[in-house]
Amino acid sequence: MNADKTGVSIVLVGNFPPSRFTIDVLRDAKALGPQDLNSASYLSLLPDQLTEIKFSSWGRLLVVNESLTVDISEAPYIRATDFILKCLREIAAVSSVKMMGINVKCTYLFPVPSERDRVGVRLAPPLNWGDWGRKVSESISLPITDARHGGLISATMRQANPDARDSGHIDVRVDGIASNDSGAAPLGVQISVNDHYELKSDSEMTDRVRTVKLLDILESHFDGSISNSMKICQNVISGN
Q1: Helices (H) and strands (E) in the chain, counts
Q2: Contact predicate 39/98, CB 8 Å
């Protein structure tokens, strides 16, 4: 089953100067192509506190003092990495990175509510939850319009220190979502994968060395991380 919507984000935690990420600075440094920068617009701008920029229809940059986030809603996703590396290696090299996450979010919509419910029952069988779970199981058979209709709302699973990395984890979260704004029960499933990287604490490691190492990891691991996260989403939604 293919996702109805896919989004990718990179979140860096550390120390960042928002004033070094204005549209004028990015344009002068040629951080993106002319078309992207000419169509860029501010969503929020507070000098030395916050810079939030929308890039046409495909992405968003949010910089506050303690974090930098790039969201991208369409392929090629690698441009998010290229953009961040350009910014932190050339434009705002005074920035420091303590940890980072490469995140994928896939949304699956189900025209038939029972198909959505089957996913929830497979991931968290209510009959394994005792007498209360049996009541939930019975409620799942009720019409989706019945206020008593229950089922799985959210579930999270973690893989610690994957791929023998020094420190970090992969968190996978499954949430029921609404397919419209009518307030109806969720008719879809959203799977979020957080591939989190950080380095072991080392008193001899400077902020600059840590930043360089984490940016090198971003550059070398991004494609593999996205591919693995997409595979995880497919595995979760299909059960295979």
Answers
A1: 6, 9
A2: no
- Distance from the Cα of residue 129 to its chain's centroid: 30
Q: What is the pLDDT of residues 65-93, one digit of tens each?
A: 999 999 999 999 999 999 999 999 999 99
Alpha-carbon gap, residue 117 to 110, rounded angstroms: 10
Helix ranges (H only) for 9-129 are 23-28, 34-38, 78-86, 113-123
Per-residue pLDDT of 215-234, as tens digits, reads 999 999 999 999 999 999 99
Q: Is 164 helix (H, G, I), strand (E, B) or coil?
A: helix
Positive or negative torsion for Cα 172, 130, 136, 117: positive
Q: Are 80 and 7 in contact (CB under 8 A)?
A: no
Taking alpha carbons only, the member of 147, 222, 223 closest to residue 185 is 147
Alpha-carbon gap, residue 70 to 52, rounded angstroms = 10
Note the helical H segments in the chain. Answer: 23-28, 34-38, 78-86, 113-123, 130-140, 207-238
Q: Specify whether the CB–CB gap between 38 and 21 falls below 8 A.
A: no
pLDDT tens-digit map of 94-116: 999 999 999 999 999 988 888 99
Tokens representing residue 213 in the block: 């190492």
Residue numbers in the chain where pLDDT is lower than 70: 178-186, 203
Whole-angstrom Cα distance, residue 169 to residue 190? 20
N residues, the chain: 240
